[in-house]
Amino acid sequence: MQVKALDHVNIVSNDLERSARFYAEVVGLTRRDPPEPLEPSLIQWMHDGEGRPVLHLVSKDRRDSANRDSQPGGPTGAVHHVALNCAGHADFIARLEEMGIAYRQSGVSGIGLKQVFLTDPDNVLLELNFHDG
Fold it and tell me: InterPro entries from the entry (predicted)?
């Protein structure tokens, strides 16, 4: 077996609609209904600019083997944050300022990386990485 790439991150949400709006309006992902037999009222897939469903948002009300013990904002063990490779740093900072969303910035100057950290509505820490300045 060979791992080719990270496929997606699954986030359990207290309010699926609120979380989907956040990831669409703030982060810029595209919201789409999941494929059948998954229920759009309980699951939304958030797609990146290449059309990949990188985040699966799942309502806390969905009870199946995959989500049986999950709680929004609950302990996630060793998982600390979700990092996304992004473009358009200046525009993104302006959008956060306009929307009044709290964030902090950092960077790794040796590789020209700018980082923006913020939390989603269910307290998931996001690291948004910009290599484009």
Answer: Glyas_Bleomycin-R_OHBP_Dase, Glyas_Fos-R_dOase_dom, VOC_core
**What fold, for 9-65+80-130?**
2,3-Dihydroxybiphenyl 1,2-Dioxygenase; domain 1 (3.10.180)
User: Token pair 């998931």 is at which residue?
Assistant: 124
Q: Which residues, other chains included, contact 15 with Cβ-Cβ below 8 Å and sequence gap of 6+? A: 121
Structure tokens at 31: 């919201």
Strand stretches in 60-112, DSSP E: 82-86, 104-108
Give the residue extent of every domain in the chain. Answer: 9-65+80-130
Q: Which residues, listed in sequence order, are joined to residue 84 by a DSSP beta bridge? A: 128
When computed from its CA atoms, the radius of gyration of the chain, rounded to whole angstroms, is 15
- Helix ranges restricted to H, 2-126: 16-25, 89-99
- Give the separation between CA 17 and CA 102, rounded to whole angstroms: 21
Q: Structure pTM?
A: 0.86
Q: What is the pLDDT of residues 36-72, one digit of tens each?
A: 999 999 999 999 999 999 999 999 887 664 555 556 6
